[in-house]
Amino acid sequence: MRTVARALPRPVTVQAPPAKAYTLRALLFGALAEGTSTLRRPLLAEDQHNMIACLRALGITVELKEGLATVHGNGGRFRPTTDSLFVGDSGVTMNFLTAAACFADKPVTLGGTPRLNERPIKEVVDGVRQLGAKVDYLGAEGLPPVRIHPTGLHGGRAAIHGAVTSQYFSSLVISSALAQAPVTLECLDDMTERPYFDISTAMMADFGALAINRDYRHITVAAPQTYQARDYLVEGDFSSASFLFLVAAVLGSTVRVEGLNRNSVQGDKRFLNLLERMGCRVHWDGTSVEVSGGDLVGIEEDMSDVPDLVPPLAVAAAFARGETRFTRVGHLVHKESNRVVAMETELGKMGIKATHDAETMTIVGNRLGIHGASVATYKDHRIAMSLAVAGLAVGDQHIENPGCVAKSFPDFWDKLALFE
Fold it and tell me: How far apart (Å, rounded) are the C-alpha atoms in residues 274 and 291?
């Protein structure tokens, strides 16, 4: 349990953490590439350490120094040193390696924590099977753990659904570049979290392979291609920075975050636009952005592409005048927790009325009525960080299992202390 006390509004400048999504992908691209890649300013949180441990188990040498990760790639050929890989609670590692481990020279098993093993993987397994891979479920159909056989990917066409997450398509498109023949991926519904798929294809190009995306419905990959090692600087993370911007919104203060790319394809950059619509002021200065809080008002927004913003935006909504309505949030049930139910429950403990149905969430703002409480985190890093920031505005906020922030933002509590 950790207690967050009320803070007074004052200007604070802070450095953005390195991007979680970029670091995870860069580690995999480095492993699949020919030669040695140097990743500069990587994020080394729990998910990244789980990815690194799995890559090492697949025979990849990864060296870590302060601010650097060096990955010695094997050109898409894995030589496992063990037959069992543990991905922890990293959905990205699970999804991405389900395809990439097909290029190992012997069978391997992929599994994770109890919560990870409840998260669906059927679409990516269906996809790699359609491309010629052999994958077996070791437990319930559609869920980890799975056994991956050394078949590679033959190529051809795979048609799967993307409504739960774009991670399935990111997994397939990355490994498809190493297939024996060209690949066509078809999305059978509306892909959610599209910006994360954009990150995957943009980074493919950075490492020397191309995919053509036609309206997130048909993606074609010429194959076989070869990934090339490179020196890669990881950009700042808008997802983690959202909690720093949230401080400005709920305290009515000014927060300046340095080290962000204004032209980034990260979808969570949209948090800045959403805060502006709610009444904050946003000013860019090169690679720094300054957010100043204002009189917050409720908004309505489709969150299908930015599900990670629902927890922090829900906190902003709690301090706003009127109602805020989030639409297309049904897929949040498959995250580290059911984030809609989690935020509704914990905001309720703080005096805020929130309701939901299958695809929407509504929050009735009440700045004068909100108060501190003992709140659960559901072992979900984004729930913990959102409720902690709320604590700066209300005081006497008690956060259960505060260590879960290590999944994406290991020094979050040090950063939060700058505002106390």
Answer: 12
Distance between CA atoms of 150 and 74, rounded to whole angstroms? Answer: 15
Q: Do 2-17+236-417 and 20-233 show the same overall fold?
A: yes
What residues have CB less than 8 Å from 368, skipping those under 6 apart?
A: none
> Measuring CA to CA, which residue among 274, 209, 268, 275 is closest to residue 236?
268
- Give dist(CA 302, CA 204) in Å, integer: 28
pLDDT for res 336: 77
CA atoms of 286 and 105, how far apart (whole Å): 47
Pair 42, 234: CB distance under 8 Å: yes
Contact, 108 vs 151, CB < 8 A?
no
Q: Tell me which residue of 417, 389, 416, 414 sits closest to 251, measured CA to CA.
A: 389
How would DSSP label each residue in 153-217? ---EEEEE--SS-THHHHHHHHHHTTSSS-EEEEESSPPS-HHHHHHHHHHHHHTT---EEETTT
The 10s digit of each residue's pLDDT in 62-87 is 999 989 999 999 999 999 999 999 99
Which residues make Cβ contacts (< 8 Å) with residue 203, sequence separation at least 6?
Answer: 22, 25, 26, 29
Return the sign of the alpha-carbon dihedral for residues 19, 20, 22, 23: positive
Domain regions of the chain by residue span? 2-17+236-417, 20-233
Q: How many CA atoms within 13 Å lie on the side-chain side of 114? A: 1
Is the CATH number of domain 2-17+236-417 3.65.10.10? yes
**How large is the C-alpha radius of gyration of the chain?**
21
Residues 6+ apart with CB under 8 A from 221: 173, 176, 177, 179, 182, 183, 184, 185, 209, 210, 211, 212
* Residues annotated catalytic, as ranges: 308
Cα–Cα–Cα angle for 379, 384, 389, rounded to 5 degrees: 180
Element (H, E) at 375: strand 374-375
20-233: what fold? UDP-n-acetylglucosamine1-carboxyvinyl-transferase; Chain (3.65.10)
Among 39-43, 321-325, 332-336, 377-381, which stretch is predicted with the lowest mean pLDDT? 332-336
Q: In what order do the strands lie in the sheet with 323-327?
A: 300-302, 323-327, 360-364, 353-356
Residues 6+ away with beta carbon under 8 Å from 408: 20, 43, 45, 46, 47, 237, 239, 240, 381, 382
